[in-house]
TrEMBL record:
SMART domains: Alpha-L-AF_C (SM00813)
Annotated Alpha-L-arabinofuranosidase C-terminal domain residues: 430-631
Organism: Gloeophyllum trabeum (strain ATCC 11539 / FP-39264 / Madison 617)
UniProt-listed PANTHER family: ALPHA-L-ARABINOFURANOSIDASE 1 (PTHR31776)
Lineage: Eukaryota, Fungi, Dikarya, Basidiomycota, Agaricomycotina
Transmembrane listed as a keyword: no
EC number per UniProt: 3.2.1.55
GO MF annotation: an example: alpha-L-arabinofuranosidase activity
Family: Belongs to the glycosyl hydrolase 51 family.
BP term (GO), one: arabinan catabolic process
Keywords (A to Z) from UniProt: Glycoprotein, Hydrolase, Signal
Protein name, entry field: non-reducing end alpha-L-arabinofuranosidase
Pathways per UniProt: Glycan metabolism; L-arabinan degradation
Gene3D superfamilies in the record: Glycosidases (3.20.20.80), Golgi alpha-mannosidase II (2.60.40.1180)
Catalytic reactions of this protein: Hydrolysis of terminal non-reducing alpha-L-arabinofuranoside residues in alpha-L-arabinosides
Amino acid sequence: LDLRITTNMTSVIPSTLYGYMWEDINHSGDGGLYAELLQNRAFQGVLPGTQNALNAWQPYNGARLSVTDKTSGVTSALPNSLQVQFPKTVFGPIGFENTGYWGIKVQAGWTYNGSFYAKSDTLTGCITASLRSTTGTTFATATIKGISSEWQKFTFQFEPKTSAPDTNNVFHVEVNGPEAAGQTIYFGMFSLCPPTYLGRENGMRIDLAEALASTRPSVWRFPGGNNLEGESWAERWKWNETIGPIENRPGRVGDWGYPNTDGLGLLEYLNWAEDIGAEPILGIWSGTSIGNYSDLPTWPIVPEADLQPYIDDAINEIEFITADANSSEWGALRAKYGRVQPYQLRYIEVGNEDQFQPESYAGYRWKAFTSAIGERFPDLQFIATTYPSTALDPPYMKIDYHQYADLTWFENAAFMFDNYPRNGTQYFVGEYAVTSTNASDYLGTLDTGRLAYPSLAGAAAEAAFMTGMERNSDVVFASAYAPSLQHIRSYSWTPDLITYDAGGIVRSTSYYVQQMFSVNRGTHVLVTTPPSTNDTAPLYWVASHNNETNLVFLKVANTGPDDLVAYLHFDFNVTSLFGTAVQISSPVLSPLTGQFNITNTLEEPENIIPASSSFSIPYPDRYNYTFPATSVTILAFEAA
Ligand code: AHR
């Protein structure tokens, strides 16, 4: 292939092109990015008196545990408490333990900030809290005194001197058994937090945060996804119940099979987006939920006449985020919760996947939300969440398009945006991933082709598609791989960008492709001859120029089973006779069956990782390069 990179610039590449979609799925928030170590810390979203309500808690030496709402809770938002009853006769210490999110990482040198609320009418002795292994090794201890009949918050710190060899550790609470015999203590709102990303209070788990941040995402779509919508209207994600002290957040029944603490709330998400330099794309609830309504003719949708309170709620949310702290009540509340300066907010997404309820969306919901919010906040841009449609009034200018599919779909779709009308409307590819090798069952099970982890071949297919997004970034203004995170011990969706357990993480092939595309950004698309088309498959490419760094990038996906050589010609002279390459390809040189399905796993996290290299360029205007079978490569050349 003779491939010429011209100096002809076409579109400006928007700064928002690469990023992530976020929702609490697969314990991506609670038990994932949120640094909190104790699971079910405040008994939110559970039914008192049930065994399920004690999830992650276990008795120690015969204490009787139950979750109750029969005593007043720590706050009105948290009516449930842990009731700990001690038998009449006790030998030795007695208490209970929290097993964390399937384990707890104990790291020497870290300071763990702990707290809980406790009260007892009769027991006044000490409480000992510790971090210990399931085999009884204690790593750190704190003594808590002063318990009384009123709720009090007790705080403590753990500073383990040695690291635990594994994550089979628990948060352990005990009292002196003979002293406590026959008595009862109530506990509420526990917390145990290790150091967080950038030291933010109530912040993010460092390894996951650093991994996401190091891809330099530039958009952060939140809070869902299905998890915005709720199992019912009442269970939707309610922004005003996710702000302020964690004791004021009731939590909710999430859409992905576990209660959400909402410890990661609106302000935490906005701070996080700012910390990583990503632009927030805020999803607002649009009047429909996603529960199991299989016995109903259609999903219940808020009738037009009843929509106003939800529109008002969205307006209040936006005011809370953007208003001046001195002149707005909502802005003042934000300041009270620690953030005086308004946040930058440009994009509002109205709903999630409303193509499933198109009549009411086009009929009144889209119009009602966009016109009322637009009147109040005229600078905001709205993103519609339905299939491209001429039925929306007012017409959408931006639309969120989702695609999960097999590899071949993504390769074929590398050119889908080339013919998109240039009429001012733009795409946000708000969720996408290769999910399967099976075109007819791309959301099926592992035994029918669903991927457990992203594969090399899948990531190469995504890269082929991404060359098309970037080449057409005049009409694709943003994109978001989804889902981002997966706790290997409890999940409902594969594959995911990063997988982890209580101790470690693994970056997937798709993660590396996202990172390669995002970190190596041009400011303008460059025309190539020939252009990348169906005829040039299985080699897919896009060229760009960064006019700040004077680098020319050539991003290439080879989705085929053979190495392919390209004779590169430049319509410019490189100013350095060194180029650089970053490449992800199979570490196995001779083709072996299945080698392109290779994945990184928690057990083998570095099966396949990108390699960087530099090379000298013999002539300033040409270079030959071999793109290995099933690979993604980004070449960079310096050119004025
Ligand atoms: O990303 C997982 C789910 O897929 C999202 O919650 C939903 O928007 C989509 O259907």
